[in-house]
Amino acid sequence: MLHSAMTDTPRAHDDQEHAADEVVARYVALQAGETSASQRLDFMRWTAESQPRREAVEDLRRIDTDLDALRGHYAAEVATLARPAARPALRRAAGLAAACVAGLGLVFLATASRTVTASGGLPALVSLGDGSRVHLDAGASVDIPYAPWSRHVALRGGDAVFDIIHDERRPFSVAVGRMEIRDLGTRFLVQTGQGGMTVSVYEGAVEIDSGTGTPSRLLSPATAMTVSADGEMRSVPLAGEAEATAWRQGRLIFDDTPLADVAERLSRYGGEKVVIGSPAIAGLRISGSFELANRAGLLRAIEATLPVAARRTGEQTVLMPAPAREVVPPRLMTR
C-alpha cells in the first residue's frame, strides 16, 4: 500500500502539470487568433466544466492585463530598441538603453498599481500574487501594485474582507487614506465611511496606525475598532462575521439595523439608489435575511413591516412615512 501511494503521487502531479499545460496552450492559441469561432466556443465550454480550468484562465487573463499595461507604458522605448543598430556604437547605446528600460521597468513595477472595483452592483473576489484574497463588497475599490512581490494595497472606499497568507518576513498592509493596517494574522474586515473606518478581526491580529503620529494599536482576534477621520481609535462590539460579510454569499443580514443604514446598503447593489425621504423614519429598525438579487422583495418587506412607503421617483426609490398601522415584528422577516 505504501509503495502504491508513493508511486501514485508523482503521477498525479504529472497529470496536474499536463492539465495546466493544456489550459495554457489553448489559451495562447485563442489569444493569437489561431482558432475558429467553433473552437473558441468549445474552449469556453471546456473551461466551464472544471473549476481549476476556470481559475487557471482567470490567472492568465490577469497576467495579460498586467503585461498590456507594461507594453503600453514602454511602447516608445520598445519600438526604438527594435530598430537595427547600424554601428557598434549604436548597438552599445541600444544595450545601455535596454538596461535603463529594465531599470525603469523595475521602478514602474515597484510603484505602479492597478485599481480594481466591484462594479455592476455585485461583490467581487480578487486573488493576489501570494495567494491572499480580497473580497470586495459592491462599489468597493482597491489599488493593487503590479509588483508580484508587493504585499501592500490601498482601499479607496467601500467594505472589504482580507483573507491573508501570513508571512512574518513580509507583513501585509492595507492603506485607508493616511491610516494603515498591518496584518499580524489572516482574516479581517475593513469598512470605510465618512473619512474613517471600522476594522473587525476574525482570525489572527492586526496593528492599526491612525496616521496622526499617535501610537499604533494592536487589535487581537475577535475584536473590533473604529478609527475616526481625526485619528481617534475606539473599541466597539464585534459584529458576527456571517452577518457582516453575508454579501460574499449573495445575502444581506440585518439585525436591528437602522433604516438609513439599510437604504445605504441597498444602494450599493445595482438598480436605482434608495434614499430616506424624511428624518422621522431614518432610525426605524429592521431585522432579517435577504437575497441581494431580491431588492424588490426587501422593499416590499419594509413596507409590510414598518410605517414606510417606497416611492420610485426618476432613477431612485424614496422611502417616506406612511400612515401608522399594526406591523409584523421585524425579527420574523425572512426573504
What does this structure look like?
This protein has 335 residues and is of the alpha+beta class. Among the domains are: 113-241, Jelly Rolls (Sandwich); 250-332, Phage tail protein beta-alpha-beta fold (3-Layer(bab) Sandwich), CATH 3.55.50.30. It has helices at 2-31, 37-48, 51-73, 75-82, 88-111, 241-244, 259-266, 279-282, 295-305, and strands at residues 113-117, 124-127, 133-136, 141-145, 152-157, 159-163, 173-176, 179-183, 187-193, 196-203, 206-209, 217-219, 223-227, 233-236, 251-258, 273-276, 285-291, 308-313, 316-321. The strands form four sheets. A seven-stranded mixed β-sheet has the order 1-4-5-7-8-11-12. A seven-stranded antiparallel β-sheet has the order 2-3-6-9-10-13-14, with no helix packed on it. The chain has a three-stranded mixed β-sheet with strand order 16-19-18. Helix 1 packs across helix 3 (51-73). The longest helix has 30 residues, at 2-31. The N and C termini lie far apart (52 Å). 21% of the residues are buried.
What value does the average pLDDT take?
Answer: 77
| Structural category | alpha+beta
Low-confidence stretches: 1-14, 96-111
Series of secondary-structure elements, N-terminal to C-terminal: HHHHHEEEEEEEEEEEEEEHEHEHEHEE
Report helical residue fraction.
25-40%
Write the layout of secondary structure elements.
Layout (H helix, E strand, L loop, with lengths): L1 H30 L5 H12 L2 H23 L1 H8 L5 H24 L1 E5 L6 E4 L5 E4 L4 E5 L6 E6 L1 E5 L9 E4 L2 E5 L3 E7 L2 E8 L2 E4 L7 E3 L3 E5 L5 E4 L4 H4 L6 E8 H8 L6 E4 L2 H4 L2 E7 L3 H11 L2 E6 L2 E6 L14
